């Protein structure tokens, strides 16, 4: 049924989800839908995309999606699935339809992300310094000092600008009521920004007129912003510091991103064997001899960066790197040991951390979290396992997770045994039905669950890129958005001001 036009729609009548056209099978239900309100009307900012899709022929949409797939194949926009039998390297599935974030939503998110990262950096400075938050009993001592991500080698180390976390990717979702909540922080070696940039390049080519009319904020300056931030970490006496990107090598799941960012920054991409430490100074081997390195953007996990300090069997790092770092002769971004602050158990304390260090209430809430290390909370989790999401504290990428409502009786029993055997290693959260966004699936537009990963840079100053990686669960009904678990990605259009996203006729 068509309706009369109003200020939020174009001059044409807009058919609703469920009517003939690309939205014929689109289902509006309990989850918050990014495009449609409860009546089935496009939300502010979405009308232009909606009208573009309803006017498009099925073949034109198939052609646009095929063009993106071919482009990504030619550019090698890939990720690696460890343990996959048929092929480890895969093209990341990318949806042609962007996710749109109104300016007002983004303004609040930006304030919330900056508040959160400021508090987490203060927290890291404290636990590697005076440890007041531990000594005063605000956080259990064993939770911090017993964490596998706590690095005693960082005790007393001063980091430039107090920024232990220089590149942050915080995942947020929307509850059924539309409120944004933080799902987790990624503070070690956060990935995905290359997909954000690649998606933008592809999707704005697919919808050039719509992109211009919607007043989408650009993200293309991210590599320059990243390089400027990394250089700001170097000693002031270095007028033109040398920055390198340290990668584990071509077999790493995010190698495409390592090479992509190094190329766009104009920075050397190096492996551990390309670097050497002499007299606590790091050098890069070049065809013209050794060249001093001032800043290392490392994409190697803590445990592997220095075999003399951490895992002695590591061949990915640089022997003596931590001594050079502690001596102040090189900067490592992100700082080793930052991962203790994105521990899934520490996550439960982040509202208290914000209040403790900033004397402010959190701008963005977190998901209610049960700590299985607490006996009373463990009992609650075991009694309600079929209704909760259970996560291993040290895992990422969708591994080590149980989604209770979708689990079999055998899986529930298996996880119950794991919780009883090692409760400290698990947290649990209520099952939140992530918001849905229109996604092009096999010739039709269907609702699929999504999350949002913006990227924050923190050096001499803190900046938030006005865009993000939207991850999408491509399997119908799935809540798992990780690419390693069958998810894909979308471009994210952050609007620059009041706009209904309509293309001009």
From TrEMBL:
Residues 1-24, 482-505 are annotated as: Disordered. It holds the Pfam family CP_ATPgrasp_2. It comes from the Bacteria. Residues 98-473 form the Circularly permuted ATP-grasp type domain. Coiled coil: none annotated. This is Circularly permuted ATP-grasp type 2 domain-containing protein. The lineage of its organism: Bacteria, Pseudomonadati, Pseudomonadota, Alphaproteobacteria, Caulobacterales.
């Amino acid at each position: 049924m068509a309706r009369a036009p109003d200020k939020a729609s174009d001059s044409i009548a807009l058919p609703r989800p469920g009517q003939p056209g690309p939205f014929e099978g689109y289902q509006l239900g309990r989850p918050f839908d990014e495009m449609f309100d409860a009546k089935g009307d496009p939300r502010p900012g979405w009308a232009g995309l909606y009208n573009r899709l309803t006017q498009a022929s099925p073949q034109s949409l198939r052609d646009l999606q095929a063009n993106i797939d071919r482009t990504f194949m030619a550019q090698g926009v890939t990720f690696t699935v460890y343990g996959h039998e048929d092929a480890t390297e895969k093209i990341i599935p990318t949806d042609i339809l962007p996710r749109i974030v109104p300016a007002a939503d983004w303004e609040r998110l930006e304030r919330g992300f900056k508040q959160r990262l400021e508090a987490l950096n203060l927290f890291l400075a404290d636990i590697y310094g005076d440890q007041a938050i531990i000594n005063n009993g605000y956080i259990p001592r064993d939770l911090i000092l017993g964490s596998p991500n706590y690095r005693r080698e960082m005790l007393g180390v001063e980091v430039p600008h107090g920024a232990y976390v220089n590149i942050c990717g915080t995942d947020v979702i929307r509850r059924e009521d539309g409120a944004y909540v933080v799902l987790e922080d990624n503070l070690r070696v956060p990935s995905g920004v290359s997909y954000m940039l690649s998606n933008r390049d592809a999707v704005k080519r697919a919808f050039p007129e719509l992109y211009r009319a919607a007043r989408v904020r650009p993200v293309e300056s991210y590599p320059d912003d990243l390089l400027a931030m990394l250089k700001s970490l170097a000693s002031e006496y270095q007028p033109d510091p040398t920055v390198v990107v340290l990668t584990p090598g071509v077999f790493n799941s995010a190698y495409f991103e390592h090479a992509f960012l190094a190329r766009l920054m104009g920075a050397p991409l190096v492996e551990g064997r390309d670097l050497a430490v002499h007299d606590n100074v790091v050098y890069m081997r070049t065809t013209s001899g050794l060249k001093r390195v001032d800043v290392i953007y490392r994409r190697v996990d803590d445990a592997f960066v220095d075999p003399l300090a951490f895992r002695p069997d590591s061949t990915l790092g640089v022997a003596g790197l931590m001594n050079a770092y502690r001596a102040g002769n090189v900067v490592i971004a992100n700082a080793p040991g930052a991962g203790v602050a994105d521990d899934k158990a520490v996550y439960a304390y982040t509202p208290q951390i914000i209040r403790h260090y900033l004397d402010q209430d959190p701008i963005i809430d977190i998901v209610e979290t049960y700590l299985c290390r607490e006996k009373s909370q463990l009992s609650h989790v075991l009694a309600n396992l079929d209704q909760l999401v259970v996560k291993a504290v040290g895992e990422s990428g969708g591994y080590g997770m149980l989604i209770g409502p979708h689990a079999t009786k055998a899986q529930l029993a298996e996880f119950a045994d794991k919780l009883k055997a090692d409760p400290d290693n698990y947290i649990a959260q209520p099952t939140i039905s992530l918001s849905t966004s229109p996604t092009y699936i096999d010739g039709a537009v269907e609702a699929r669950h999504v999350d949002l990963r913006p990227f924050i840079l923190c050096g001499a100053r803190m900046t938030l890129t006005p865009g993000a990686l939207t991850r999408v669960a491509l399997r119908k009904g799935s809540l798992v958005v990780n690419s390693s678990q069958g998810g894909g990605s979308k471009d994210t259009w952050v609007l620059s001001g009041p706009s209904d996203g309509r293309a001009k006729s």
